[in-house]
Each structure stands twice: as structure tokens, then as C-alpha cells.
Amino acid sequence: MRNPLAALSLALLLGVPSFAQSNTQTPAPPSTVQSAAPLPAAEQALVGVIDQALAGVLYIETYSNQTAATTRQAPFSSPLFNDPNGPDAPQASGSGFFVNAAGYALTNYHVVEGASRLTVRLRDGNQTFDARVVGTAPDYDLALLQVQGVPAAQIRPLTLASGENLRVGQTTIALGAPFGFQFTATSGIVSAVERTIPTGVRSIAQRAIQTDAAINPGNSGGPLVNSAGQVIGINTQIINPNGGPSDIGTNIGLGFAIPIDTAARLLPRLQAGETIVGPIIGVALAPFELGELTQQARTQYNLPSEGALISQVTPNSPASTAGLRGGTQRQSTPYGAVFFGGDVITAVDGRAVRTPDELREYLFGRRAGDIVQLTIRRGSETLTVPVTLAAGTPPATNR
User: Fold this and answer.
1) CA 344/CA 87 separation, integer angstroms
2) pTM (2 decimals)?
3) Does 319 reside within a domain?
4) Which residues neighbour 243 within 8 Å (Cβ) at sequence distance 6 or greater?
5) How many C-beta neighbours within 10 Å does residue 114 have?
6) Among 137, 143, 147, which residue's Cα sits nearest to residue 104?
7) Number of independent structural domains in the chain
8) What is the CATH number for 185?
């Protein structure tokens, strides 16, 4: 006869119900996963917009010539594996987007600056295509590429939409490759319009769109689109947690995009192969707002409370030819040495100039050869002086 205790022990070990458990109720099966409910119509529309827009986005990798001495060694190396940090590895990555059916694409200048070779990948395939830089605008942080060998069916140009009526609260969608995560979409709103931020290799103040859509390194050059999938800007900067605009760091809800109107205005010149720099008048402006000065200082130097103070005039420049005057009294300031006593620009083409940044922003919307009417304060006199803008010199870069 079998020992019942032994039979019970065996049943428990095997997980088989024993005679002692035979009357226990069988547990109910776990809940099953149900099919997801249909998306609301508005959400379906947004998903479709993003899906269509991503088809026109580029993932850009840049390569630069470097010697073996500057190549980092990978912590693990083997003749069986490629060295991820070797001389054939990409040096950086960014984003871009098609603007026409000929394979031309816009991106940021800082994405392609210093690169000896560019490759592009599209969302609908793993194939890599070479690309060439057609034209650049370093001061505007813009570059135009042409992607080589892409089948016509895979070129999906995005529609550009003027930001003339852009309003705070509109939906924004940032597309690109943050931290190399390709073809990512993040959404938010237009946080502010008419922002002015330092832009380009010389950090000259220019208009920008502020958005809280997450923008991170790798998003640079990608499109900022509206809820219809139209491009309203080109992602360019975030606010660095240390306090300054930058293309490095992590998103804290303060992202900026170059208005697409700026890029559209320059696009024909970029496609013609130009290197575009902002026009100049040939002056060094005091790097501060006159409102920062004490009333005593403004009285001493006979300065208004608003305007752009000319510290120095460049010889043989448009400003010199027009007879503009720089300062003669050198003073040390928290911003460095500044010459006081020169002309103060208070308006340009009838538009009031309150700060140096406002003057620079206005001039960057013009072209070399344009004549602007400067209203200046010279001592107690107010004069109007015509100045012909000249082409600036392409800045040297360190990248």
C-alpha cells in the first residue's frame, strides 16, 4: 500500500493537485489584452501628418579627414569588428529635409561645417546616399545640400509655410534625430514669436521661433512643422542649462528655430552656390544698450536713452564713405574698451532703433548693394545719412 503522505509530497513537488486540493475552486484565467479603441479623428490626423512629414526628413552623418594620431582607440578592438571610433567613423550627425524634387535639402551650417564628406539616410530605407554642400550662409546657420543618387520616388519635399501670421499656442512638431535616434517626432506649441537670439558662426542677433517641443543635439537642421505638416522653421538651438544658447546640452523646454521665411529668402542664392554672409556698414557698435548707462553717463556724453552707439568706423567702409563718425574717448566698461563720443544710430529707413541688436537684425534682412537711410544723433543734431551696404567677409571657422 502506498504511503499517502509520500503521495501528497510528490504531488506538491510536481505541482499536481492532490486529493487534499481536489475541492479547491479553479482560479479564473487572467484578463486578456483588448484591441485598442480607434483613435479620435484629430489624433488620427496628427499621426498622418507626422508620418507624411517624416518621409521628407534626412538623417545626416558627417565625416572629416583625420590622421591616425588623432583617432581615438576603442576600449574593445578586434580584427573581426569595425572600430566605432576609427578614421572611417562619422564625426557627427544632424538632420535636414528636402525642399524640392531635385534632391536639394536644407540643414544648419553647423551640422556640415568642416565636413569632408556627408552621407544621408532616409526613413523609408537603410540605403545610404552621398550628399554635397551646394551653398552656405554661415551667419544665418544655414546650408543647402544636394543628395546624390536618390530615386525620384523617395524624394519627398516638404511644404514651406510663411510665419507671417504665426501665433503663440500653435502646435509645433520637431522632427529629426536627437542623440542619433533617427526620425523622431516631438510636439509642443509656439512658445513665443519675435525672439532674438545669437545665430550663426559670429553669433549675430537674429529673429527666431521659440518652442517647447523637445529639441536636443541631433535635431539641428531638422524641420519644425505646424499641425498641417508645413515647415515653419529649422531647429537650431536650445538654451544651455549654464545660461547661453547652444547646440549642445539637453532640452529644458526652451528650443529655437530659424524662421523658414529667412531660409526661403536665401534659398535661390544658396542654390546658385553662394557663400552668403550678412551685409555690413563697417562699424563697431558699443556692445550694450544705452539704457544700461547711468543718467550721469548719458548726460556726460550727450547720449539718448535708446539707439546704437558707434564706437569705431572701419576705414574704407560704407560707413566711412558716408561720413559716419566713431568715438574719440576710450573708456573701460564691463564689456571691454569702448570709444564714446561717436554717432548714435536711432533709426534705419524710418524704423526706430532702440538697441544694437535691432539694427543688426534689420540689416541682416537686406542685401549687399542696398541703400539704407540711417538716422543718427550727433551731439545735439539729428541727421539722415544714406549708406550703401557692402558684402561681409566669410568668417574663419575653427571646426
Assistant:
1) 53
2) 0.77
3) yes
4) none
5) 13
6) 147
7) 2
8) 2.40.10.10
